[in-house]
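Hi everyone,

Forwarding the result from last night's run.
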Amino acid sequence: MIDKDIFDNDDNKIGYWRKLEDGKDGKNLYEVYFDDREDKGDYLQSQEFVSTEDEAEKTAYDYAESI
């Protein structure tokens, strides 16, 4: 699957997301990777979520922005 970058309002890359699996009824499994700004380590946090294709980018952005 293709990684899609996520940028904040200042054009800083804050993470990326990708589709993991096709699901039923138009809902697919996605995973978002994002940097925990309070953690000084080099590791990204990740979260899986279920969404429609139309809402996946917004949902991934919301996860990345919430940290």
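The chain has a mean pLDDT of 89.

Cheers,
N.
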